[in-house]
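haha ok so turns out i had the wrong file open the whole time. this is the CORRECT one, sorry everyone. sequence first:
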Amino acid sequence: MRLEGVGLMQVERVNSDVFNINRLPDGSRIFTDPKSGTVFALNAAAGAAWDACGCPTTLSGVAKEMRRTFDPQVTEELAHEAIAQLREKNLVTTSDVAPSTTRRRLIAGLSAAAIPLVVSLTIADQRAHSVLASSVKPCATAIPCK
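then structure:
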């Protein structure tokens, strides 16, 4: 399926040279932004979209590159969803904001593994989560710790 008038939307990475990028064997990526202390995790579909934005391009160009490197069944809707998530996390810029596709329509033709996913967590958030998730509870001040 083709998104009308969206294929010519310009897409460009934002400051990709500041990230520490780890590529995983399954095609996913883990980025660390040392300046902000944010960690980004991209699944294989979002990683393919990120790779497709190595040079300024269009949404159609992203979809074409994703078909070549990730999955021949990639549609412009899937590429748009990946770019929208990358834009939401300030990893790319676009010339305009395209209408969003519905997840239901996107999922209809794809497996769940192909749906792009970009998540981020700051170092402070990670620390707070690790404290909450810890199985070791701090000692009460009235009872001496052993």
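The longest helix spans residues 76-88.
again sry for the mixup
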